[in-house]
């Protein structure tokens, strides 16, 4: 992963959108740091053998950087501006489709 692991005073596994918004608004973190933290969390759980569909890191960082610049120059456009929203889903299938 590009760049050092960010040192951020938040656990992204338990932080609420409100927690992240307050940190972004205060300048304590930026969206690029949030992307890096979430990617680290996904990689650290590889042992779960889950299917992780993630946008390529360079695209994630590019978008996060653009959102950080927009926040700096124009302010946030919504309460979720720059906050990464990871989604978790489960797919169950019948064993009969494999036979």
From TrEMBL:
Designated name of the protein: Amidase
Species the sequence originates in: Immersiella caudata
Lineage: Eukaryota, Fungi, Dikarya, Ascomycota, Pezizomycotina
